[in-house]
């Protein structure tokens, strides 16, 4: 049987430490645990506690139990189970994110977005669509068309007319290129950048986005109203309406406007007459929204109102409206909405800016070197047509083992690996072959550098290594404790009941009173009422007492309420006020009712029923199983503890 060995002073070990090896505070069989690990966990969990020898020793005992459980979990190969491996990988995927972003870039983007959220911009645009996989020649053709239109605009051509004539945005047919008001995160990032950099009335140069080329004109800039609460009354009028329908709709909205002007309640008019079924039942109230969510002229009318006022009738593409501004909630302080901005950034193209910064840094840090000659040979070998006809092949053989790039001393990327990477993506491309291969090579190298960085984070960043160890050991601790203690206590009903029987005297009721609280209303003569209750009181005699009181006082409204219970001292003020004397007592007399209490009998201390305290017994049984388990682990494994090292934490 192995035993716990407490080592207080070992000169040999001390001399080994002096030679520069890590301090080992705990050893379980052949596994060593350093003082540094104990120190980190102790201070993380005892930030507000005074540092004393006693507190360190107490925590050391808990730490030994923790490490024994984790050691047992590893001995049972729980760390090799698929469930554990997947769970740890999931946590790691989240934990690596801060190490793969550039904090300075992130902060700059957060502040930029917040400053833009303080304003709304109204803009028009002309879109020249460029298919995602357009060939360079086709892209150039579209670019030149856009340049021609831009030149005309710069020479004074009407923007709206040019939008109707040239824009490939389908919405141009009803908005003439007007996108309405928007703030940060409402448009793709390059578009947003251009719009917020323009002055009112200024026209941009060509702006490239995933959609194609844009020409943008800013027509207005206002302080952002923040979150808007508004209501509307709507009369529907489709774009295809006849002149008669249009006239009728206009007359109808004017009638409703006149009702409002005559003093009618806006919500009432909306409920009765609005033809927007989703909002009519709510008095016309719209869901709260921020700029860019509604039709441009709809928002324009709302933003021009003062809180509590409504607009004159106006028309949109869906019909006639009267809008009322209920409230505006200004943009909240950055400190409050920083997490929200951060989440939005992570879902947009802006997140790539931070990743690009990291990749650039890693390329320099790892001294990325690529062989242009090998790359050129690959480009020459790939059959251009095979990139689009899904029949991938090479025009000439390549040495797949030839090294294309090296970085970080030991990382090598072979040209054959890149060829396979391109092959998988070739069917998605209609780009020029050389351009496509170059972009895929860039993506491949970037991904490999990020993969390498992820795989070596524990080596580069000690804090990350400790964090991963905490998650590793924490998951193992949970899994084995769940199996050995928590689930066992729930499933082992026989053991649970046996534990209760062995410990039932630890779950005792104190002395208790079996009593009945009697409430009589309305109030009549106190002593007479008390005599009637005393005379006719017996269990289940509520109706009899109530009948006698009604007959005595000739009042059929008299009501008697009985409330039976068993009470410990301190749990009922009426019982406590009787000094625990049996019999009938006046508990309280109020204006409209009298409260009596009948102390029936005193119950002597006795064990609580298992069914009443099953949850408490289960928790105690779990604790019992855990203590028994810990004792068995301390017997099973040889544990050496070097308590003298605690002095290093005190000095």
TrEMBL record:
<dbReference type="Pfam" id="PF13616">
    <property type="entry name" value="Rotamase_3"/>
</dbReference>
<dbReference type="InterPro" id="IPR000297">
    <property type="entry name" value="PPIase_PpiC"/>
</dbReference>
<protein>
    <submittedName>
        <fullName>Peptidyl-prolyl cis-trans isomerase SurA</fullName>
        <ecNumber>5.2.1.8</ecNumber>
    </submittedName>
</protein>
<dbReference type="InterPro" id="IPR050245">
    <property type="entry name" value="PrsA_foldase"/>
</dbReference>
<keyword id="KW-0697">Rotamase</keyword>
<feature type="domain" description="PpiC">
    <location>
        <begin position="225"/>
        <end position="327"/>
    </location>
</feature>
<dbReference type="InterPro" id="IPR046357">
    <property type="entry name" value="PPIase_dom_sf"/>
</dbReference>
<dbReference type="GO" id="GO:0003755">
    <property type="term" value="F:peptidyl-prolyl cis-trans isomerase activity"/>
</dbReference>
<feature type="domain" description="PpiC">
    <location>
        <begin position="118"/>
        <end position="220"/>
    </location>
</feature>
<dbReference type="Pfam" id="PF00639">
    <property type="entry name" value="Rotamase"/>
</dbReference>
<keyword id="KW-0413">Isomerase</keyword>
């Amino acid at each position: 049987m192995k035993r716990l060995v407490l080592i207080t002073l070992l000169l040999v070990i001390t001399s080994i430490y002096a030679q520069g090896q890590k301090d080992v505070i705990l050893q379980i069989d052949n596994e060593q645990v350093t003082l540094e690990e104990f120190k980190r966990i102790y201070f993380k969990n005892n930030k507000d506690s005074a540092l004393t020898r006693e507190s360190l020793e107490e925590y050391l005992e808990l730490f030994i139990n923790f490490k024994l459980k984790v050691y047992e979990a590893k001995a049972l190969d729980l760390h090799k189970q698929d469930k554990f491996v997947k769970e740890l990988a999931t946590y790691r995927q989240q934990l690596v994110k801060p190490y793969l972003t550039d904090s300075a870039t992130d902060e700059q983007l957060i502040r930029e977005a917040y400053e833009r959220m303080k304003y709304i911009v109204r803009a028009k645009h002309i879109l020249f669509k460029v298919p995602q996989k357009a060939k360079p020649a086709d892209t150039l053709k579209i670019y030149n068309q856009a340049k021609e239109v831009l030149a005309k605009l710069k020479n004074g051509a009407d923007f709206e007319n040019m939008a109707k004539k040239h824009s490939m945005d389908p919405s141009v047919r009803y908005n003439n290129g007007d996108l309405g008001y928007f703030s940060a995160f409402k448009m793709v990032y390059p578009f947003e950048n251009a719009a917020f950099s323009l002055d009112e009335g200024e026209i941009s140069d060509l702006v490239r986005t995933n959609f194609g080329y844009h020409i943008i004109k800013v027509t207005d800039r206002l302080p952002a109203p923040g979150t808007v609460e508004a209501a509307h009354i709507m009369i529907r009028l489709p774009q295809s309406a006849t002149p008669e329908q249009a006239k009728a709709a206009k007359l109808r909205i004017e009638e409703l406007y006149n009702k409002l002007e005559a003093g009618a309640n806006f919500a009432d008019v909306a409920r009765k007459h609005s033809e927007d079924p989703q909002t009519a039942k709510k008095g016309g109230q719209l869901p709260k929204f921020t700029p860019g969510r509604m039709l441009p002229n709809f928002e324009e009318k709302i933003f021009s109102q003062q809180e509590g006022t409504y607009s004159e009738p106006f028309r949109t593409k869906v019909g006639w409206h009267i809008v009322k501004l209920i409230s505006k909630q200004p943009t909240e302080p950055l400190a409050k909405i920083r997490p929200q901005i951060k989440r939005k950034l992570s879902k947009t193209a802006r997140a790539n800016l931070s990743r690009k910064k990291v990749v650039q840094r890693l390329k320099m840090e790892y001294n990325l070197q690529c062989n242009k000659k090998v790359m050129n040979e690959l480009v020459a070998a790939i059959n251009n047509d095979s990139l689009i006809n899904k029949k991938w092949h090479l025009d000439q053989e390549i040495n797949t083992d030839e090294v294309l790039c090296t970085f970080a001393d030991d990382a090598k990327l072979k040209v054959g690996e890149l060829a396979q990477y391109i092959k998988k993506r070739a069917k998605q491309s209609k780009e020029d072959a050389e351009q496509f291969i170059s972009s895929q090579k860039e993506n491949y190298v970037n991904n490999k550098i990020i993969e390498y960085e992820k795989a070596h984070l524990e080596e580069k960043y000690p804090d990350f290594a400790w964090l991963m160890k905490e998650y590793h050991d924490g998951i193992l601790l949970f899994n084995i404790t769940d199996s050995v203690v928590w689930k066992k206590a729930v499933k082992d009903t026989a053991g649970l009941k046996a534990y209760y029987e062995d410990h039932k005297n630890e779950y005792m009721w104190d002395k208790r009173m079996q009593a009945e609280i009697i409430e009589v209303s309305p109030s009549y003569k106190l002593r007479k009422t008390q005599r009637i209750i005393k005379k006719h009181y017996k269990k289940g005699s509520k109706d009899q007492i109530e009948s006698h009181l009604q007959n005595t006082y000739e009042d059929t409204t008299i009501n008697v309420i009985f409330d039976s219970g068993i009470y410990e001292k301190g749990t009922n003020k009426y019982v406590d006020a009787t000094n625990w004397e049996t019999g009938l007592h006046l508990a309280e007399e109020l204006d409209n009712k009298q409260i009596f209490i009948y102390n029936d009998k005193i119950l002597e201390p006795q064990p609580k029923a298992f069914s009443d305290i099953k949850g408490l017994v289960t928790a105690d049984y779990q604790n019992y199983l855990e203590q028994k388990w810990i004792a068995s682990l301390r017997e099973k494994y040889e544990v050496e503890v070097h308590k003298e090292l605690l002095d290093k934490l005190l000095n």
